[in-house]
Amino acid sequence: MRILLLSLTLFCSLAAAQTSHLADEWYQTSPSFTGLQTMQSESPGAALQPEKNRGKAFFMSLLVPGWGQRYTESRNKMLAFFAAEIGLWMTCSGFELYSDWRRQDYRAYAARYADVDLDGKSDSYFIDVGNFNTIHDYNAYKLQWRQLAEYYDDVDANYWNWQSKEHREEFDDLRISSDTAHNRATMMLGFIMANHVISAVDALISASRHHNQQTVLDWNLFLGDGYYTPRVHFTLTKHW
Nearest-5° angle of CA 156, CA 157, CA 163? Predict the structure, then answer.
């Protein structure tokens, strides 16, 4: 009888030990294991939208406005910058073309009404032609003010003599309109450069925002398993 009781006691002890061992194994392999578990995950949108290179976006738009916006998937801005680029170039070309037309007009006008030889004449020469009725009036003025460096020694090569004051004034209006159009074309080039720079900076900002949107951070902290020990859950989420 004592041997039977001793055997039964030994069997129960072994069973309890085995049960405890199995419980420990399950506890350690549980997803909410013990002490501490952390994990980091990305938002669903990050998986669908790959990170954009900010330097690449910047130089793409610096080269062609709107190209960087296309890269960063900013369609409306892409269309706006590219349309502005086309419009500015068309305006610049229009002013330059008009300036060239007017330049040809005033040169032909001077040849017809002031006997100007157009060969090898600079723009500054035509400014003088528009300010004085004859080359002799011009030279006399320069001698009076001792501006000998601007004096025309070769009168025959630089000769002009307007048929009337009205013709000279008409010529000068043509010349001024040509210069004005040329200056506006130059101004358009400045706007074009500004459009490139602004588009590049905007593409950089768009890429940075796109990059920040991909860095959503979720931290989950579990303490305990909820069975043997109380379970505590901490969550830290960063949104942009």
Answer: 65
